[in-house]
Amino acid sequence: MTETSSERKPVVKRQRRAGAGLTMERIYTTPGVHPYDEVVWERRDVVQTNWKTGETIFDQKGVEFPDSWSVNASTIVTTKYFRGAVGTPAREWSLKQLIDRVVLTYAKAGKDFGYFATDEDAEVFEHELTWALLHQVFSFNSPVWFNVGTPSPQQVSACFILSVDDSMDSILNWYREEGLIFKGGSGAGLNLSRIRSSKELLSSGGTASGPVSFMRGADASAGTIKSGGATRRAAKMVVLDVDHPDVREFVQTKAKEENKIRALRDAGFDMDLGGADITSVQYQNANNSIRVNDEFMRAVEGATSFGLRARTDGSVIETVDARELWREIAQAAWECADPGIQYDDTINDWHTNPETGRITASNPCSEYMSLDNSSCNLASLNLMKFLNDDNTFDAVTFKKVVELVITAMDISICFADFPTEAIGDTTRKYRQLGIGYANLGSLLMASGHGYDSPGGHSLAATITSLMTGTAYKRSAELAGIVGAYEGYARNADAHKRVMRKHAAANDSIRTLDAVDRDVHSVATAVWQECLAVGERNGWRNAQASVLAPTGTIGFMMDCDTTGIEPDFSLVKFKKLVGGGSMQIVNQTVPRALGKLGYTQETIEAVVEYIAEHGHVVDAPGLKREHYEIFDCAIGERAIAPMGHVRMMAAVQPFLSGAISKTVNMPETATVEEIEDVYFQGWKMGLKALAIYRDNCKVGQPLSDGKAKAKAAPVEAAPAPVIEYRPTRKRLPKSRPSMTTSFRVAGAEGYMTAGSYPDDGLGEVFLKLGKQGSTLAGVMDAFSIAVSIGLQYGVPLETFVEKFTNLRFEPAGLTDDPDVRMSQSIMDYIFRRLALDYLPFETRAELGIYTAEERARQLETGSYEAASSADDLEDELETYAQSAPVTPAPKAVQPAPVQVHSSAELMEAQFGRTADAPLCMSCGTKMRPAGSCYVCEGCGSTSGCS
């Protein structure tokens, strides 16, 4: 059964104007000049292929974009947002058409619903919105670009929260509503805690099934429908309160399934993400979170007991050890990354509508938290667009743009469609909005602040405070014109209390330099005005701000970093006009070095060093105290897990909702460390927190060779356990060998490498230190271990990946012309072995080259044979024509041919596999964006819109 148009969109009467309407101020535009006339337009061909299969998955010729837009941005907009069948006259072909389709719809609705004082103000609004979108100052969330101005339902929201009660009708309706939302390409979350537990009786006298049993049906439904009818998984969040009697079963659901996945994988089944056999396991289509309250957290802190309560009458039916349950939660997260944590009392303490109902759940990415059966439309600002040439933040312009964008977002609720009547009703009554930003990581680096530093925290906090304060100030002004939200009257006291909490948090910020001090000054004035206007008018919106993943729209705005995330890496993968690709050092690096006072010569040397090594450790001329400014999400100086938590805590008091972010932890992280991260999140006042431990999931592709090496299906056998053992290939009695003498920072040594007759390395002997010394003994033992590993089939490149870049003394200059600098003896040994025994293609992926190859690269731009120099020069010329002109140095190198994204580039640089899925559309490795993943090649996400 499908909904009719009248069921989907009730008739909305034009609201009576309470005031004279907004007077719109020009920010960027000039009277009498249309924004389209201020840019240079060019035609491009967008052809997209799956690099693994060679299949062309998209082809549209002659699309029109400003010449300042990158190839990646125009590709993603063309493939994702242009409407109409490809190859027909109805197909959009210009960015002008896309922006007009959206902006003109907003401008007309603003006039129709009485938002503007005059028609001239409506025109200013239209032009300013057009200019900001055209110049990548901000972007609406994806559903706006999909739907607004088309014959389709005008759905503008990406985030939905549903509800389910303790009845079969409600449970079956939950399945139906989720299916409709998934079909439309969005995601939803809900709390299952109203469903009685498996320890309680039904009215008929039988025992209840419990919420976990009903999760199976919802999981199967999500896996069948998928998101938007595509191949990627649906986006959904399932929440359970910590005092639910079935909480332990809920905690273990995905951990048990992960063990099943491992067993099936070891038996030869294809259990990778999207694999043929992954559908045989359950609960894989949702993120799971435990909703903990302060009572439970205090019980954990005090090591006391905690009561699990019946859903029917609230009585305690089981008492558990709080710390034991806390350990089980952390253990499950260690095993499979689920469940995450949501802090119930903190969430509801910042709730503007408690008289209407509690906040019980969130959207799939945990940034939108509001009433049941509600939705939120999002928009994000590109923070780098507000960084002045003198590295100050343009707070005044930022404030004006927030006012413009929040006005547009509120207008959209007037004409929007919603997937269910209940969601539409709640959203129109409470008008929740979610303004946010992207590119924080780049902004902090460019302005000389470490991501996990007091200066970085302070600047992020002041910008977020200014954003939310301005959004609520404009909301209060709109309330004076078109009225406060319908649910405001009954929640007025609570709403004012939360506004005062935000303002008080702003007053508690301690600024550290002139940049954040100026922003804080503007934010303080804005909050004072917000409180005064709100006291008089009320507010138009129950919520105003969140920090979303900004995956696809981040690429649309050509952002280097998404949401609140730090920079992913210092070296980027860049597509070129004509189809080539390069690896290039992030251009925020030279800007940051200039801000720190380094000379042009030093800046060029550091950039060249980063281009080769991927990090700044031991970069020539760079002070150690400045290393933290260039810390990234992955790499040699990856930001510590608690560094991410501290940044979240810095900005959380200035958000209506929460933050979409996963705290990545190394594979070596312990259960105790996860317990501490979750506990500190509560102490620091976060609303939600999720972790991901590297390699904790089987369902993540690690390499192409994995599928090829997959074992053949195993026939049934009496023995339940099947073992696969490697076979040792011993060296012959006489074998060729090579002895190399070396010197690292004055320390002398010898390395003898023995080979098989077919030239494969089979043994290594190292002589270092005096015979009989502890060092000599350790090196002998290490040599034996490596040699046996080689003979049992461990690839040499695996040892090279693990032991290069190890840092310990002695370290420094060597006497080897191919390896001039070494970070340790191990670093030198395995670089030398790589040069002697690995083919060029493999070494290139690891960033290891001979002196001759490096000299060739400086002369021709290529590490490979000179015959390819002409082709490379053509690509470099094309790149120079398409890239924006800046005085900063660009360390440009050809990307390895096997690399198709920044994630794969970093794998090649550091020799470590990135835990991220492959894109279902184009096959490239995705990278983190908030609590999901996004593809740099086509903009697809792993579950978030």
Automatic annotation (TrEMBL):
Residues 45-136 form the Ribonucleotide reductase class II vitamin B12-dependent N-terminal domain. Its EC number is 1.17.4.1. It catalyses: a 2'-deoxyribonucleoside 5'-diphosphate + [thioredoxin]-disulfide + H2O = a ribonucleoside 5'-diphosphate + [thioredoxin]-dithiol. Residues 157-692 form the Ribonucleotide reductase large subunit C-terminal domain. Its cofactor is adenosylcob(III)alamin. This is Vitamin B12-dependent ribonucleotide reductase. InterPro entries: RdRp_reductase_class-2, RNR_2_N, RNR_lg_C, RNR_NrdJ/NrdZ, TSCPD_dom. Catalyzes the reduction of ribonucleotides to deoxyribonucleotides. May function to provide a pool of deoxyribonucleotide precursors for DNA repair during oxygen limitation and/or for immediate growth after restoration of oxygen. It holds the Pfam family Ribonuc_red_lgC. Keywords: Cobalamin, Cobalt, Disulfide bond, DNA synthesis, Nucleotide-binding, Oxidoreductase. GO terms for biological process: DNA biosynthetic process. Residues 733-836 form the TSCPD domain.
